[in-house]
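Duplicate of earlier report; RND family transporter input re-posted below.
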Amino acid sequence: MTSPDTNTKAPLAERLVFSKRPLVMMLMLIATLLLAWQATQLKVAASFEKMIPTNHEYVVNFLANRADLTSLGNVVRVTVQVKEGDIFNAEYLETLKKVTDKAFYIPGVNRPEMASLWTANVRWTSVTEEGLEGGQVIPATYNGDAESIALVRQNVELSGQIGRLVGNDFKSTVVYMPLLEINPETGQRLDYKEFSERIESELRNEFNSDKIEIRVTGFAKIVGDLIEGAGQIVLFFGLALLITMLMMYWYSRSLKSTFATIACSIVAVIWQLGFLNLLGLGLDPYSMLVPFLVFAIGVSHGVQVVSAIALKQGEGYNKLDSASLAFRGLYVAGLTALLTDGFGFATLVIIDIPVIRDLAVGASVGVAVIILTNLVLLPLIMSYIGVDEKAIQVLRASESSDNKVLRFLSGFAKPKMATIALVFGVALLGVGLWGNANVQIGDLDKGAPELRPDSRYNLDSVYFSNNYSTSTDVFVVMVETETDGCIKYNTLAAVDLFQWTIEQVPGVQSSISLADRSKFVISAYSEGDLKWMTLNRNQFVLNGTISGMNLSDGLFSSDCSFMPIVVFLEDHKADTLKRVVAAAEDFIAKNDTGDAVFKLAAGNAGIEAATNEVVDRAQVEMLVWVYAIVAFLVWVAFRSVRTVICIIAPLALTSLLCSALMVVLGIGVKVATLPVISLGVGIGVDYGIYIYGKLEEYLKQGKPFAEAYFETLKSTGKAVVFTGMTLGIGVATWAFSPIKFQADMGLLLTFMFLWNMVGAVVFLPALAYFLERRGKAA
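Output:
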């Protein structure tokens, strides 16, 4: 049977695509080969600066003073632990020396700022009858005998490094390694994957033994572990691919259409990765999941295309006409859905964190290529191969039968069940509003929440927290003065008062600054009498407290116009950071003496506080933009405000319920989870657009509302349910990832895929009945 429609009646897009099928497919094949080559050049990398909000006031202050904060920025701590005895033995100290030497030559380490008991910048100070004396903790005369080791113990006790570089129990010491963002040997950004691998091969693997345990903490190690764990995404992608293929064959009963759909979705991923490389972008631990989302969206639209073609073949049209008519019926709805996805994902660029902006670009590019690979290439392929006859027979049998499940679902287009659905929806809305009011910004766990609590990194982090007075969560307040002003009494007194104030805040362990050092030296000059552990108003006395002090201690700048106050926190949980920031800002507002300017904030906790503020502001702004753009594009497609409400309301309910789920699961809104909301909305709107587009088509044929919805379910509705279930199951495999934030994203996306599907087949018709078709249901 031939289509009754002639080519002259076909829309322009259809004529352009199907009149030159071999040419279009050849051009796409060439594009695929070229972009596949580009995709092989794509690198998985990460950057410290790309993961922080570089325009936030705190980060601007940090970057402006970065030269004086080299030892307080991106830092790795290698803890060398002795399993039996203590550190004061020749064998341990020799091992520590080897670890220090190895670490010194790892590319990317800021060598002048590196610190260990073996480095020249770790010194001891003492006051004797002849004045101040000091020297290296491990002197040049050390030879490993009992006398030398006793001297090292004495020097350690005088160094002030117990709890900082030396464990409180004397069973471990730290090799402190500040990092450079640019590798001086290559001139390129620090390769965190390579750096982490060298830490493992040259330090942990080489020196771990039955006597020594090497532990590593720091941002660079977190990123390295994330990249290592992210390699398993390939396995999850393969598993999801297999699940999708099996379920699609079960749904379609056609091997040809199954392989065609999967192949076109894989081509979309290849194109996306190729374009990312052309744009000078790469993949990082946060965006490595985007290719799977592109694959999922491709499958979602591919299922609609194949289902439409199967229906046309079932009606007796040949392969070419079936593909052409399916394209004609779907390209407007499909194009609208994909444009909505793309613009929705693009709204992530408003979040002032480069890594999320890159994710937004990657997702938007991926959606853009699906327009060609799954809405154009797939129909062209199907116009040659068609759907298997067995699949058409199954479809005809399904069409002729009265499917009880679909008949039940069509009841939501009738008054009674539509009312029940809306009442249930209002109840769920209450749950969602509760969740939205209680969801927290930032991390809710100690250690690195991106990794599992029992991961090697988090176990190392727990060891450090339990055995050192200073934690790895550092909040730095920067104090700026005039030249030589850092040692003036008024400045030091203000710093001392700030420290006392901030140490009263729950969650603060301790703090250090130049004021502490000055008080210590003044007390030392007075035979260690604690009553002299205070600041002296005599400027000559204060000047004497920093004479001979090593600049590498990082307590003040070379011209004495800048000094940091280093605050050690118990953790970097969202509540802890809020309390610390609030107390610091309150102090600054009330104690502006004019002698010193206090600025927030550096250190990993200071950067995270800035990130939390950006995320907190951006989440509302992002949602407003996402829903505004989606609503506008839906209105453009359907020209009806009521239709916009029918499609958007279920999506909004899903977003709110996702917030409630995050509260229940103890997941905070942060860099890793914020994009999920936008991605979930972008994919979910496809369901509503396809269902409403087909429903409107049947209504225009004069069918009663409930019957029109039943016919919609038999075609598009089944495809939507299948897609939601398939994608949900595929994404659920992420729950087994060793990377916790990937597992969290998997759980949240699974929920959003499934619940958006429920919203499209249950709440959409219920809303449409009351808003559009009251009294017309049959």
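The chain is about 60% helix and 10% strand.

Merging into the original ticket.
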